[in-house]
Every structure is written in structure tokens, then in C-alpha cells.
Task: structure prediction
Amino acid sequence: MAVLPSSTGDLFGHVTAAKASLYRRILEVFAAAKRQFQLQLRPEDVMSAAQWEGMPPTSEELQEALDQLVVWGNLQAQHDMSRVSTLEDFYRKRLMYRLTAGGVAVEAGLEVFVETLAKRGELQSVALDDIRAELIALSRLARDAPPDVAKIHGTLRALIQRFQELANNAEAFMASLARTIELQRGEVEAVLEFKARLIDYLQRFVGDLVTRSGQIAEHLRALAPYESELLGTAAERDARDAAPEGGQHFSAAVTARLTDWQERWRGLRRWFLAESGQRPQAELLRASALSAIPQLLQAVSLIHERRAGRSDRAADFRRLAIWFAQTDTESQAHQLWRAAFGLSPARHLALAVEDEVAGGSTRWRDAPTAPIHPRLRERGELPSRGAPPKIIDRSRERAELAAMVAAETSQTEAARQHLIQLGHTRLSDMGLLDARTFRLFLMLLGEALASQTTPDQPVERLTSDGSLSIRLIPLEPESRAIIETELGRFSGRDYRVLILPA
Result:
């Protein structure tokens, strides 16, 4: 005979109750038991299986918590008849508990809630490769005759699902990056260790995004003639599972699902292709990731300045607030206030005061006017006594930094001049490129290819900083260019290329 709960309208009541921790430990045991296909638990089973915080509850406290969860509707109680051997055992209260349907739904919802909050955004370079592979497979399926409907539908679903994961994770990462950049409040050593890894992470993703986004855009343009047919095929296959709602239910279901597929496909195209005069989202993401690197370096430079000896006024005030909180009496607080902000007699300035009748204990507002040294009035400081303070000579460090900056600038300028001096040439005739020249050329090539609308379209574009202009003229589709670099071989379709100063 089941004991039904008196109320099932407050399934989330245990989350905000006074003993929320106790209730959650109990329900976690029942959730784990359900995953292990255990239908019912006794109070002693809950007591032994739960992971209590601190001292475990008494049997009476556990029984009260179980009864309260039954009242809220999370658990269902049932008499335990399996251990009845005498008449006294029959009349003794022995109950077994199980999760109700509402309790199962609450546990599933809380699990998703916790996972969503704990999930960290990330920039998924692997997702770009997966999207490219799915587009290649979809392009092959689109040209098959007759079309394989099941494979087309499955490939489209995998493509859209992977793209949604990429977009959602990238959005979450960029939203949290602003909070991540505020590293000057953390531990210095942890910040300096994290800085290099984060910058390397951003640079690696930006490099993959430049390369993969151009390839994905090319495949999307190649699929443009087949879009309607592919999306219509997927919509019809989805509509087969629609519940009947009348004579025209199938056509209505096809229309509704086709609208959903078209909306998702437009989102995919806008991520990698420039449409309606708007920049693609992949380019905006790259710009956001690149702008985060200087902000991170600025945060780290603030830490270096603090370590070099500059004062942190915010930290000083926080420390002063702690001292105020630790005072025992109001008199001590007033004394600390006078010591911190200088609201005490003016005799501490060691000025030449004509009237020495007033002692050092006279309050400053009751003491006679004291003459102020001109330097104190103008600069807020008194002339120093004794030897002047030692000044740390940082000329050597500044010279080293200046030399490093000059060397990097010289190398970058040499790479620019090398690309400019090549003139109007083919990719296959560029010769051996060093690492810095190849990185600069790869950035220029990625920006140019990203602005193409068709693979055979000539393109000319300025760089993002406006310093260089690159012009690309595609050669035959079967042409091949191999560029030897210090980092390896770079191969692809051959182009005529001209790089000029803007």
C-alpha cells in the first residue's frame, strides 16, 4: 500500500529550505540509485550511501528529512513488507522510498543547470575541421544520383549541430574573456604563468580560423546551387515523424521544418561569408580575439609596474579598512583616522612657528596660523633632509626592451620589403620564405581569400592596418603551387599575386 504525498506543488522547496544541504545529499543518493537501476531505498541505505558534510545526521533527523521530501512530492514512501516476520513488525513503521516522476524531473533539471553554469566557453579549432569535413561530404552527396536521403539528412544534422556548438562556445568564451583579462587582482605568479598560455591559445585559434574559414567559405559557395534541394530533402525526412493533424498536415510539417533548416543554413553562411554588406561573424570573432591580446598584455604590465615599486592606492585603502574593522574602541578608530589622514596639530610639519605657546597637544583648529613652506604649498612635499633618496637606474632594462622592439620591427619591415620586391609573380615562383615572412604572407593571403565570393574571382584588398595591398588572380583550378618555408611546405591552388605598399 503506497503512502501518497499530501502536496506535489513544491518540488523545488528543498533547494531554498533551511536544511537544503541535507535534502540535496539525500536526493543525490536517490538519483544515483536510479542510474544504477535501484528502485527503492531504505533509510539505512541512504545513511550509508550519502556523502555527508561533516557529521552525519541522526536517524531521527534523517527520517524527518525523508518525510518532508515526501510532503514536497520529491519522494514516494511505501510500506516495507519484505522484513515483516511478526505481528509487531507489521504494525511497526517501516518504509521504503523512491523518486516520484516529479522528483526525477527536478533532479534532471538541476543536473543540467549545474552543468550549464560550470561549462566554460572555448574556441574550438577542431570544430572548424569537422565543419569543413561535413561540407566536403555534403558536396559529394549532393552530386550523387539518385540522392541518398538518409545520408544527406544525417550529414546536415551533424553539420548544424557542430556549427551550433562552435558558435555557442565562441560566444561564451568571448563573453568571459573580459572577466579573464582582469588578472591584476589575482596572484602575480599565477597571472604571469597564465598569460603565455592564454595568448598562445588565442593566436593558435586565430591562425586556424584564418585558414579554415576561407576553405569553409569556398565549400559553402560551391554548395549554393544545391541548397534548396538539400534542405528540402532534410525537411521532408523530418516531416515523416510529425503527428497527424489533418489532411494537409504533411505539407504543413514540411513547410515548418524547411523554414527551420533555412534559418540554420543562413546562420552558417553569415558566419563565414560576407552578405548584405556585413562582415562575416568569423572575421568579427578573429578581431575580438586579436583585440584581447593587447588588453591582456596591458593587464600584465600593470602587475609588473606594481612589482617595480609603484603604490596601489586601492590595496592601501582595503588594508586601512581592515585596520578600522580590527579596532576595539571608538577612540582607537579616531586615532587611526588622524594617523592615516593627517588630521592632527600642524606642529608635525616641523615648520618655523612664531607662537610656541601652544603645545603639541593643541588641536589644529585651535592653534594659531602657521606659515607654510612654499614648496609644501606648491608640490605637497617638504624639502628633504639629509642625502637624497636613491633612484633606481632602469636604463639597462629600457635599452634591452628598445633593442628587442627595434629587432622585431626590423624583421617585420624586412619581411614586408621582401614580399613587395617579389612584384607580380606566381605563388609557385615565390621561392623559399623564412618564418616571419611566411607568417606575414599567410595573414595577407587569408584576408584576401576571405573576401572572395567565387573561387575564380580576382580579388584585391587592403590589410586591416591599411599598410599593404594584395591582389590575387586565380589560375586554372587544377594548377598547384608549393611554397617552401622554414616551417614546412605550404601547398594549394596557384595564383598570380602582387603585394604593394598602400
